[in-house]
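Researcher: I'd like a candidate sequence for this fold, 131 residues long. If you have to choose between options at a position, lean toward the conservative one.
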């Protein structure tokens, strides 16, 4: 049975990485970067996380891609799992956001967790199943 959750999060740490490995020669092209992000989740999913983000900010659009390990409790079950998530949009384009629980990434009481959703405006929305 699929369950729907909405859990708020706060960004506790945002550490940009040094340098820009994806930079265009001679400084042309959109700004790209990497960041380490630490969060705290509250609500039906309670815990902490650490994520690695890749970002791009152009004149007419922006995008990010992240892998995030969440350690916490869901439905009274403690464990961890990995979310892969991202968003992309720009002038005249619909913003596309997505998040997936990486198959097989659940540990402890969250082993077997499956789900899809979005992360937006400090809120994780996730439709999930636990065995």
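Model: Candidate sequence:
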């Amino acid at each position: 049975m699929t369950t729907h959750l909405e859990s708020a999060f706060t960004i506790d740490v945002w550490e940009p990485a040094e340098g820009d490995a994806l930079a265009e020669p001679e400084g042309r092209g959109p700004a790209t970067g990497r960041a380490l992000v630490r969060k705290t989740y509250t609500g039906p999913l309670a815990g902490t996380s650490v994520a690695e983000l890749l970002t791009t900010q152009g004149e007419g659009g922006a995008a990010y891609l992240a892998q995030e390990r969440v350690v916490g409790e869901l439905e009274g079950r403690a464990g961890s799992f990995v979310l892969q998530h991202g968003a992309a949009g720009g002038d005249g384009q619909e913003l596309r956001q997505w998040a997936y629980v990486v198959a097989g990434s659940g540990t402890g009481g969250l082993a077997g967790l499956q789900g899809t959703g979005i992360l937006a405006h400090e809120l994780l929305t996730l439709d999930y199943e636990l065995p």
